[in-house]
Amino acid sequence: MMGNVGGRVATERALRGYLLEEALAWLLRNSGYSLLTEGDKDESELILKGSTLEVRGRGAEHQVDVLGQFPFTPAFSLPIRLFLEAKFYDKSRPCGLTVVRNAHGVINDVNQNFVPGSGSQPRRRYHYSYALFSTSGFTEPAQRFAIAHQISLVDLSGDSFTWLRDLVHRMAAQLCAAAPRGQVPGRVVSWIRTTLRGRLNIPRELQEGLDHELAERGTLLSLNREVLPALDDFVSGLTDHAEAELLIGFPAAPFILPLNTTNRQQFLAYASQKPLHPIRIQRTGEDGSAEWAITPRNLDSKGYRLTFTLPKHVEDWISLAGEDERQRRSEAVKVDFLSSITIYRMEDSTLSVYQLSYEPTELRRR
Fold first, then answer.
1. How far apart are CA 163 and CA 159, in angstroms?
2. 246 alpha-carbon distance from chain centroid
3. 145 pLDDT more than 80
4. Averaging pLDDT over each range in 51-55, 171-175, 339-343, 357-361, which range is the top one?
5. Which residues of 304-322 are buried (b: 16+ CB within 10 A; e: fewer)?
6. How far is CA 150 from CA 84, 85, 182, in A?
7. Quick check: 282 pLDDT over 50?
């Protein structure tokens, strides 16, 4: 599962992407997906090459940094697995079409990795999906291509994720400052990622083996002095936001919603009492700074607040209209795409399903 760059080295920009993926794995720790590791046995689908996990496709084998599996199988479907990829680019450089097209190629190839044969042993099959996270948003061609081919895009450029972007940026700079010539060896990147998973209580199997190999090379002793304090700061930065959680909302739309909450206990207290409940949805800000907020419609008990952003091309469609038309378009998005939002959450081996329901004021009065 670690991004193995082999004998190559990781630049600061590459490190930011790796660290962001580990942070997201932690933020999504209760989203319902369990992380697959090198110890998971699935010889027909997964291949372990060194410290790299790869997934078999019809035409190639594909490296995967973070791979999750959903705990139950939806009706009339296959068990679901999710590729998670994160891009940490400069703010002025949104994630482009090339990255999304690559994701589409990978998903098509792994989902077609099945050739029936007479007398062959039956094997399990999975439906693979792909989620791309970007700290700088996505270009319009990338968004349109992703919607057409069902690639989930998650924009982390909003204010709600400022703390996360700052933490990852600072950590990558510290690691490169401690490394020779500002570049971190690939094997060390794998060790860093497994160390972070261990300290964040994310399952891992290779830590002892990597520690031993690096110690034999004399690398680990110097890393302990230079890198471990930075790793401790990174873990502390995440756990300081222990109440932060990234829930994935599944609306009746060709996109998913990253639902950010700074107080998960408030949400859980309300949702556990009312798994199906009505909500209010409000939009604040304009253009690229627009953010949406979900609150319970009936505040007869302590409520909660979830925030999210919509794909840029949807926001552009709303923002480019006049004030009255803007309100009409906002309402149309709520009714057409956000009328029902489902959230899956796994904790202590128990899966909970919450459904948030939106109805426009006119319908409620009727």
1. 8
2. 8
3. yes
4. 339-343
5. bebbbbbbbebbbebbeee
6. 14, 15, 38
7. yes
315-to-44, 90, 110, 321 alpha-carbon distances in Å: 42, 21, 33, 10
If DSSP codes are grouped into helix, strand and coil, which group holds residue 264?
Answer: helix
Residue pair 32/351 in contact by the 8 Å Cβ criterion = yes
DSSP for 97-112, written as a single string: HHHHHHHHHHHHHHHT
Q: How confident is the model at residue 334 (pLDDT cuts 50, 70, 90)?
A: very high
Answer yes or no: are the C-beta atoms of 204 and 36 closer than 8 Å. Answer: no
CA triple 242-248-250, angle to 5 deg: 160
Tell me how far the alpha carbon of residue 164 is from its chain's centroid: 13
Mean pLDDT of 236-264: 85
Is the Cα torsion angle 84, 89, 92, 94 positive or negative in sign?
negative
CA distance 364 to 366: 5
- Measure the CA angle with vertex 94, ends 92 and 95; round to 5°: 150
Q: What is the DSSP string of 172-214?
A: HHHHHHHSGGG-EEHHHHHHHHHHHHHHTT---S-HHHHHHHH
Rg over alpha carbons for the chain, rounded to the nearest Å, is 21
Q: Which two tokens stand for residue 161?
A: 């994720």
More confident residue, 167 or 205: 167
Q: Residue 72's pLDDT is what?
A: 78
Residues in contact with 161: Cβ distance below 8 Å, sequence separation at least 6, in sequence order = 135, 260
Q: Which amino acid is present at 53?
A: L
Tell me what pLDDT residue 288 has: 62
Q: 186-227 pLDDT, tens per residue?
A: 777 877 887 887 788 754 444 444 455 545 445 544 555 667
- Tokens found for residue 7: 């004998």
Q: What is the token pair recorded at 233?
A: 């700061």
User: DSSP letter string over 219-237?
Assistant: HHHHHHHHTHHHHHHHHHH
